[in-house]
Fold laccase.
Amino acid sequence: MGRGNRFHLAIIPLLFLAFIGFMSTPVKAAVKSYQFNIQVKNVSRLCHSKPIVTVNGLFPGPTIYVQEGNRVLINVTNQAQYNMSIHWHGLKQFRNGWADGPVYITQCPVQTGQSYTYDFNVTGQRGTLWWHAHIFWLRATVYGAIVIMPKQGTPYPFPQPDFEFNLLLGEWWNNDVEEVVKQGNKLGLPPKMSDAHTINGKPGPLFPCSEKHTYSMEVEKGKTYLLRIINAALNDELFFAIAGHNMTVVEIDAVYTKPFYN
């Protein structure tokens, strides 16, 4: 065999390997980025005003909208006087458990004046989850929704709703929550019960100074609404119903379920 033929035979496997390498290059996941600024803000409820810890000055905090398969980057900058960590409640965290958020377990806290970026993938989940502070009792005000949409072109396994609403059920204390916890520990008792339950940070109309500040939804007769309901209360199991209406449960903790009716 001539030298030129040997050269051609040697280069063919290299070209073949290069072609296989090109064909097997994985498609990069779309990246969703968010900025969380931990800030103290004065908020009034039940005729009382007090400073609370918030994300971006919002109570509840911002909703994270992602799609199944996305990579998510969330940069947390702590401008409050408390150490901070954020837990992404219910996310499976495949291959990125270090981003789960429980302080002193998967990470050190984000100290005042410092930043930390959470980097995780959303894999095999679709539906509703939530995020919250995972240090002290700061999740009384530091929390928000996570909405995971199905992959492009994948429909819901139930009739398409006309509209969607996020409903975050929470609690409100007139006093500083950390002081409430300290007082309970000093007495050897559970912390004092909250002064009100809230929907999207607002108490019901029967509480003081609340009649004009209650959360409400405008709906249209005959339309179907998907309600993403999250129990963000610290201590209580809560039940939800709408008078005169039937509801169908279609998903629980980012897993579709066989529809059942109440």
User: Anything to note?
Assistant: The chain has two domains: 31-157, 164-261. Residues 6-25 have pLDDT under 50 and may be disordered. The longest helix spans residues 3-23. The first strand starts at residue 31 and ends at 45.
